[in-house]
Amino acid sequence: MSDVVVEKFSDAGQLVDAAAARLVTTIVEAQKARGFASIVLTGGGTGIALLEKLRNAPGDIDWSQIDLYWGDERFLPSGDPERNEVQAREALLDHVPVDPDRVHAMAASDGIYDGDPHGAATAYEQLLGAQAHGNQVPTFDVHLLGMGGEGHVNSLFPHTDAVREEARFVVAVTDSPKPPPVRITLTLPAVRRAKEVWLLVSGAAKAEAVAEAVGGASAEDWPSAGATGLVATRWFLDTDAASQLP
User: Fold this and answer.
1) Rounded to an integer, what distance in angstroms lies between the CA atom of residue 51 and that of residue 127?
2) HEC profile for the chain?
3) What average pLDDT is seen over the chain?
4) Are 188 and 226 in contact (CB under 8 A)?
5) Which of 49, 90, 97, 198 has the highest CB neighbour count under 10 A?
6) Which of 219, 220, 213, 216 is nearest to 235 (CA)?
7) Residue scoring higher pLDDT (58 or 68)
8) Exposure of 166 by Cβ count < 10 A (0-12 exposed, 13-18 middle, 19+ buried)?
9) What number of other Cβ atoms are within 10 A of residue 177's Cβ?
10) The pLDDT of residue 134
11) Distance between CA atoms of residues 18 and 69, nearest Å
């Protein structure tokens, strides 16, 4: 059973500062231990703010020795500003010397999988397998997650086939209740391959979902409840998001 750690901050800014500092330390420690780090990125306001903070991180990070993945992506054309990849590049990746071959973006809708999100999902699952060093999917150092008010993480929404998925590591979502409707997402089995899962959550509108997930609710009802790390699950919460916790 992994540790569940709940950290509370006065506001979203302090939350982001703390998560960024811890992520720098985690990346540096992983690189010292085995030469590289493996991180799954998330979108959303808090996730992108975290990446912006990393742009000015201390020089201890070797940006050329990081494998970067995404937890989900909107199946939109290349360069669309709504794509998580585009936002991450603007916030961080265009400003640090990452190795392009180690930045593993999900396919765009106007690429070789034009109109075929299921094919794009299969391709990303195969990419993960190729990176896994003998396992079915890499053991990520950290999987970063935001969370919606109904508890969704990645593009795993309550009471959907995607959140119920137990075998596949990447699936297409064609009926997302949050636009755009077509997305590609890592599933809960893939999330659980991370050593640590970090949920960065702010705002009173998410307080009920936080309380349900931390309290051990059903992942089908509250998907964030199923997002757990092999070693630790860390909740970074502002005061409002933590307001319904005991």
Assistant:
1) 23
2) CCEEEEEEECCHHHHHHHHHHHHHHHHHHHHHHHCCEEEEECCHHHHHHHHHHHCCCCCCCCHHHEEEEECEEECCCCCCCCCHHHHHHHHCHHHCCCCHHHECCCCCCCCCCCCCHHHHHHHHHHHHHHCCCCCCCCCCCEEEECCCCCCCECCECCCCHHHHCCCCCEEEECCCCCCCCCEEEECHHHHCCCCEEEEEECCHHHHHHHHHHHCCCCCCCCHHHHCCCCCEEEEEEECCCCCCCC
3) 95
4) yes
5) 198
6) 213
7) 68
8) exposed
9) 13
10) 63
11) 22
Sequence letter at residue 198: W
Do residues 23 and 30 make contact, with C-beta atoms less than 8 angstroms apart?
no
DSSP β-bridge partners for residue 144: 198
Confidence check: pLDDT of 33 > 70: yes
Can you give the pLDDT at residue 133? 67
How far does CA 178 lie from the centroid of its chain? 17
Is 81's pLDDT higher than 70?
Answer: yes
Residue 135's pLDDT band, with cuts at 50, 70 and 90, is low
Q: Which two tokens stand for residue 131?
A: 């990176």
- The one-letter amino acid code at 167 reads A
Question: Could you tell me the two tokens for 70?
Answer: 């995404």
Long-range contacts of 131-138 (CB under 8 A, 24+ apart): 131/67, 131/104, 135/193, 136/169, 136/193, 137/169, 137/190, 137/193, 138/38, 138/67, 138/69, 138/193
Query: Token pair for residue 69?
Result: 């993945």
Residue among 71, 74, 75, 178 nearest 128 (CA): 71
Distance CA 78, CA 87 (A): 12
Confidence of residue 56 (pLDDT cuts 50, 70, 90): confident
Preceding peptide of 180 cis, ω within 30°: yes
